[in-house]
Design brief:
CATH architecture of the largest domain: 3-Layer(aba) Sandwich
Oligomer: single chain
CATH superfamily of the largest domain: Crotonobetainyl-coa:carnitine coa-transferase, domain 1
Strand content: 15-25%
Distance between the termini: 22 Å
Radius of gyration: 25 Å
Amino acid sequence: MISTTAKGPLEGIRILDLSRILAGPTCTQVLGDMGADVIKIEKAGAGDDTRKWGPPFVKDANGNDTTESAYYLCANRNKRSVEIDISLTEGQELIRKLAGECDVFIENFKVGGLRKYGLSHDDLKESRPSLIYCSISGFGQDGPYAAHPGYDFMIQAMGGIMSITGQPDGDPTKVGVGIADVMCGMYAAVSILAALHHRDKTGQGQYIDLALLDCQASWLINSGLNYLTSGKTPTRMGNSHPNIVPYEVFPASDGYFALAVGNDTQFARFCDVAGAPELAVDPHYVTNSLRVEHREELVPKLRRITVERHVDDWLNALQLAKVPCGPVNDIRQVFEDPQIKHRNMQISMAHPLSGSGSVDLIGSPIRFGKTPVTYRHAPPVMGQHTDEVLEELLNLDANVRKSLRARGVTGKQSPGDGDQ
């Protein structure tokens, strides 16, 4: 169940979000979907870098590009945008006051980057001992690489995932999305939830140090353990699985399908559907371990069989036989899939700059039984909620807010200011 009005499980939690790009924003969007009030602080006059990462951009009523990129939209739902120039003393003071009204502070500046503004964890912890402060960086707050910048692509390269992705005779290949950033954001969300639980028990906040490279290494999962267990360095295997056979993409006469045989019983059922029951009892293939050992001879045999029938023929027959399989969908086909539609994985939210009046977004995959995910704010335009937040949290009246804008402390008021 997903709602636009119900109260999420994190209702009453407020997050001051000084992160940008993808890892931090992914974290705070997840928490925002769960009901947290996320105050997104953006550099006055510039905003989150990803606003400019396009095309594609949202189109206005005349079909022209707006300032909102699809990339920015992907990770900034359920947030309120406030423009503040933290290089100014008054801007720094606003951040300190806002932090005093928040439960969580998250940032992804370079290591030590907020210290010069008096906004580091050490600067805030005495006045706000219950504050949970989360720093996301490329390499963590210590170690020989701590001062180096870190971006998803280089982290995928350094963290090993590119060495096991792609065809054996091809170039090292990145994952098709910024998965190092996304996974770091997920680890950050989990860490913050655990820290909130600890704070609720003890009243104590704490500092969380998350590194993209650490997170990348952690989700090498079975490939990492294959190396640590055997001492052998995994290599690129295309779509093949290092520990299971057959578990990869196979050709049909009109396309490809994914076959995911997870045990010997499923392999026997697959062989029956394929009209080759003898393979299931062949002494080279009767167990998964043997199939892994003899994959170089088995997989070509299977490919010669699968290419004789249509994709739909294979999928229908294998699903009836309870053999795990699926189509190889492109992105369009994903969002047209009836299961994806049924689960509301594409949503639409009103947006002030869109010519159609709304923007399409990817929905949350989280399904709570009693405290549903909520969709309250579309990804905000830059500074959209500056006045609203400063009045609500800091009780600054209209004249003070106008003065702050005039001096460039909070940027210019954006069209469509207010709630969505």
